[in-house]
Amino acid sequence: MDYNTDSKNEYSEGLSLDTVLMYVKKLIDKWWLIAIVSVVCALVGFIVAKATYVEKYSSQIMFIASNKSQAITVAGQTSSDLSASVSLAESFKYVFTTTELSKAVADSCGYKITPQDVKRFVSVNSVEETAIIYLTVTTTDPKVSYAIANAYIDNYSSAIEKAFPNTSLTVIDPPLEATSPNENRSMLIYTALGLLIGLIASCMVIIAVVIFKDTIKNSEDVTNKLGMKLLGVIGRVGKRSKKDEARQGILITDKRSGFSFIESHKLIRTKIEHMASRNDYKVIIVSSTMENEGKTTSATNIALSLAQNGKTVLLIDADLRKPSVAKILGFAATDDEGICGIISGKKTLKESIKYSEKYQLFVLVSNKAVENSSEVLSSSKMEEIIEDARKEFDYVIIDTAPCGLLADASILAAYSDTIVLIVKQDFASARRIKRAVENFENSGTEIIGCIFNDAETGMSRPSIGKKKYGHYGNYEYGYGYGYGYGYGGDSGSGKKHRRSKSK
């Protein structure tokens, strides 16, 4: 498979439901950022409105239009007269802002203003479906507004008569001098506008960042961008309570993980079993490009699903720098050193592997981190460990360190049959994933496919059970309080259990 990072695949990325839901999820995840930006923009709008606010005063005149030569009341008009008057009212509006009338008003108002000022100060509106017209004069001085309004009363009739002979426009409500400034709505408007702009802008920026990030946004991208086979899609599991998070990871053995989560892993198990039977795969590496993509949870659940299907499975925690399989399974704290203990000669493979009757799973884990993980895994003893495990178990699932950060996964690939890559939605860039996959090329080990993952793993630990013993082949393993691992809900009196390896 060619992972040339300079090449680009030509394909059409449609706006699928999964993609839309991902955008919605991103917006919800960033709600705090959207809220902050929106509040800041609203505050800016309020400050701008406050800084630019100038008190204004208005004087208003109410007119009524008539198509008769003399002023009459509305009650005295016929329906045809009223209809004509309504039409005239719309026309009269424009007469008030003519240059000739504006000049006459400016000259007679008693203040030094220009016709252009008059036009700027005046607004004319008609009441819909009536013959009523409102003329409003607004300035920063109540006396000026009142003077201009009175000047209109003195000069409007000649302009109306000239423009529309045989019509009448009568003042029915003369102007008054304003005693208080107009209601200030600019602060409310600017604040609301700032809030809206902040909301829209922040959402657009977040979506734009997601769009232009070269990440794997949906399951189709696994094939289109990475050119890999898709083994399955694991949907996000809802967050648990803090009490649950203190116990163990999200496992298919826990019904609270959800039907979809459990069934998705069973489908992945079926695909792995089919490919393994055709290609004689037994040792499978599970890795990811970066941290926090859910590789350990996936490795653990793959092992559990295979064990549920009657297979003998060994799960190895080979992420030596940050071992977490024991914590995911809810094992009690242990002094075992796992792989490191075997390689150092402190223990044998027989002594280090434990069997969980609860999970029907064999494990080789440790809670102790080491810094020189690459040197440990490169030793010839590591290859012996895997080869011995290959002979005893149907499947050996190995959880490794992220292949995009450390060489550990590439080292182990040389001892393994195939690789499962975990790709978290919208997390690592496609370019980075391809570069990480290149680390496997020298090993010659095939990547069987990708699991498209968006799980939120919460840790929890069940209560410690009584000491138990498991037996398989030439190995006898103990676990319990004070040594090995404890499991909530396990019961029994310490009987030995023998499992014959199926062929």
Please characterize this protein's 3D structure.
The protein folds into 3 domains: 17-52 and 185-212, no CATH class; 57-173, Alpha-Beta Plaits; 219-499, Rossmann fold (3-Layer(aba) Sandwich), CATH 3.40.50. Strands 5-12-11-6-10-7-9-8 form an 8-stranded mixed β-sheet, with helices on both faces. A 4-stranded antiparallel β-sheet has the order 2-3-1-4. The protein is of the alpha/beta class and 503 residues long. The protein starts with 16 loop residues before the first helix and ends with a strand. Residues 1-14, 69-76 and 455-503 have low confidence and may be disordered. The protein has 18 helices and 15 strands. It is rod-shaped. α4 (99-108) crosses α5 (115-121).
The fraction of residues in strands falls at 15-25%
Q: Regarding CATH, which class of the largest domain?
A: Alpha Beta
- The total tally of domains equals 3
The percent of residues in helical segments reads 40-55%
CATH superfamily of the largest domain: P-loop containing nucleotide triphosphate hydrolases
Gyration radius over CA: 40 Å
Output the structural class.
Answer: alpha/beta
Largest sheet: 8 strands, mixed
- C-alpha end-to-end distance: 32 Å
**How many helical elements?**
18
List unreliable stretches of 5+ residues: 1-14, 69-76, 455-503
Mean pLDDT metric = 80
Name the CATH architecture of the largest domain.
Answer: 3-Layer(aba) Sandwich
Topology-level CATH name of the largest domain? Rossmann fold
Shape, principal axes of CA atoms: rod-shaped
Widest beta sheet: strand line-up? 5-12-11-6-10-7-9-8
